[in-house]
Amino acid sequence: MRKLASLSFVIVLIALISPHSAQAAEQRIEMIERPHQLISGEFVDDELATLLTPEGRLGSLVYTPKIAQAHWFIDAALIDEVADMADGYELASNEDGVGVEVAAAWLEQLKIATVGAKVTPLAYGNPDLKLAKRLAPSELAFYYTFGAERLSFHLARPIAVDKAAWRSTTSKLSGPLRKNYTVNRQAISKLTSVVSAPELQLFRARLAILLSPSINGPTSAVFAANALDGVAAQQSKLRVNPGKYALTSESGKVPLTLVNGFSTEVKVNLIFRASNIRVIVDDLREVTLAPQSRTQLALPYTVITSGATQVNAVLTNSKGQWLGPSSRLSLSMTLIDSRVAWFTTAAAVLLFIGAGAQTYRRIRKGRA
């Protein structure tokens, strides 16, 4: 009886210890790093090349054999940076990066090291989750989804979103820079309402870097300024070319050029706002622009009176939201009243007839 009791105690003890032992056997590996690449794509330094070597911090994580079962927590933004390095890259100082081969080897080793292991994708860019949720919960959901998609692409295996497995640290981003993030996010959000191009989706995701706890102080200001420039560059890909036009008739058409620099088709509305009522220009709805195109439209107009007018041309989505800054069209109208035109024409005809008659009389007089 005593032996049976002892055996039961051992079985219960093993049952209690086993789950903890299994948990202790799982090795947690965090594949995160501060951003070395600006939102617009330029690398600010080449430190990442050193970190990816077998002796570096990130290199040791993939090159060192794992004895225990591994659970990987990976920021896909870091993997995208390494992939850009592997394709060849240039530093912001205009010097060539030295980590091309190191990055390519590291990517291959990451695939090998994570085979069969549990992988949890972080929200893209590893932002402060509480701050991101407070500023833009819908964008945070996008960062989670995009991070899983990018990681699936790089590891060539399905990776599911897991929002509960990671707790981020806190960002020290200042109030003005939080406002900067919101302005940039809203501008890109309007663009994505009509543009589905992959390059714009990537830029949208990279804005999460502005909320990363790993950039603070002067570094966060650098990234914020770069984001503003990047947003302006994205907006300029979809625009109306400005121009100057001289109009001499009451009605007609002027050529207008629309540019779509994105890799996908775009459908927009073209809205006009004149500075005065000297001219009437009708809005154009649901204009389709082919990928990577310059489209010329014949814009109808009706002149009310002579003078100068500035017309602002704005591209909008179906909700009427501006997709970028307006373009200025300068119109100069010079109209001649129809009665004045008739009188001038008649006078010219009479002068011509008079000159002809005088010439005829001179010829006859000379013959006489």
TrEMBL record:
Pfam families: DUF6049. Keywords: Membrane, Transmembrane, Transmembrane helix. The chain crosses the membrane at residues 340-360. The keyword Membrane applies. This is Unannotated protein. It comes from freshwater metagenome.
